[in-house]
């Protein structure tokens, strides 16, 4: 993935917000990615289709973060950007482009504490370190230098207990090379699917 790729163009700003709107029982995973001014850059929804020719495995919402889930991230006018494919269990989440090419992957090193980030060929890009409340995430490169910070915002007790609404802030410490930059941007969604989707009220 090069700086000229659509994903890099869409998420070129160093300050981003990721929001998961409130939803009721049995609703599917949905996210919005906004810039620092609140402009919607992309939307994501749970999907069962990877591209025109290949069906993704069926994804059902459930109570456990062991469930497989996949979301398609698109521009607001419907142009596909990436597929975030969380496999069953807690070990692997893959990121693929609309042509089904692997961009990178998050692999669990310690559940809820540390995730290794690799590129599409399996080479190490860096890691994601998680604090104990699972609300702050530091993305670092292979030298251990922090390249991004992701923070989950406290939405209030009622919102936390009774809905699935979540909000994240993303700060990218540019310049960050691709595909690590794209993986850093997507960390909020990946961590939410891996660590916080288990509070679904289904």
Descriptive keywords:
disordered C terminus, Porin, mainly beta, Scramblase, 202 residues, Phospholipid scramblase-related protein, 12-stranded antiparallel beta barrel, Tubby-like_C
Q: List unreliable stretches of 5+ residues.
A: 49-65, 157-164, 198-202
Mean pLDDT score, rounded? 81
Computed over alpha carbons, the radius of gyration is 15 Å
Q: What is the overall number of helices?
A: 3
Number of domains: 1
Task: Give the full name of the CATH homologous superfamily.
Answer: LURP1-related
Helix percentage range? 10-25%
| Succession of helices and strands | HEEEEEEEEEEEHEH
Q: Characterize the largest beta sheet: strand count, sense, and whether it forms a barrel.
A: 12 strands, antiparallel, barrel
Strand ordering within the main sheet: 1-2-3-4-5-6-7-8-9-10-11-12
**What coarse outline follows from CA principal-axis ratios?**
globular
What structural category arises from helix and sheet content? mainly beta
Task: Give a quick rundown of the structure.
This protein has 202 residues and is mainly β.
Report on this structure.
InterPro entries: Scramblase, Tubby-like_C. It comes from Actinomadura yumaensis. It holds the Pfam family Scramblase. There is one protein chain. The chain has a 12-stranded antiparallel beta barrel with strand order 1-2-3-4-5-6-7-8-9-10-11-12. The chain has helices at 6-10, 157-162, 180-196, and strands at 15-20, 30-35, 40-46, 69-74, 80-86, 92-96, 102-110, 114-119, 124-130, 136-141, 146-153, 166-172. The chain is built from 3 helices and 12 strands, in the order αβββββββββββαβα. The chain is globular and about 35 Å long. A hairpin with a 5-residue loop joins strand 4 (69-74) and strand 5 (80-86). It has 202 residues and is mainly beta. Mean pLDDT is 81; it is low at 49-65, 157-164 and 198-202. The protein has one domain (6-199): Porin (Beta Barrel), CATH 2.40.160.
């Amino acid at each position: 993935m090069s700086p000229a790729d659509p994903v890099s163009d869409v998420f070129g700003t160093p300050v981003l917000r990721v929001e998961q709107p409130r939803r009721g029982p049995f609703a599917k995973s949905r996210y919005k990615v906004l810039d620092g001014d609140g402009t919607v850059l992309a939307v994501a929804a749970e999907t069962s289709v990877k591209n025109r020719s290949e069906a993704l495995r069926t994804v059902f919402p459930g109570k456990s973060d062991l469930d497989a889930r996949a979301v398609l991230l698109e521009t607001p006018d419907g142009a596909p950007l990436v597929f975030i494919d969380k496999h069953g269990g807690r070990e692997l989440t893959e990121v693929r482009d609309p042509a089904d090419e692997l961009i990178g992957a998050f692999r669990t090193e310690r559940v809820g504490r540390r995730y290794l980030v690799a590129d599409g060929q399996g080479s190490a890009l860096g890691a994601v370190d998680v604090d104990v409340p699972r609300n702050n995430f530091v993305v670092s490169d292979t030298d251990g230098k922090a390249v991004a910070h992701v923070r989950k915002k406290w939405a209030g007790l009622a919102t936390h207990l009774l809905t699935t609404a979540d909000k994240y802030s993303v700060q990218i410490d540019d310049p960050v090379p691709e595909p690590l930059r794209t993986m850093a941007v997507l960390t909020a969604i990946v961590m939410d699917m891996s660590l916080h989707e288990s509070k679904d009220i289904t």
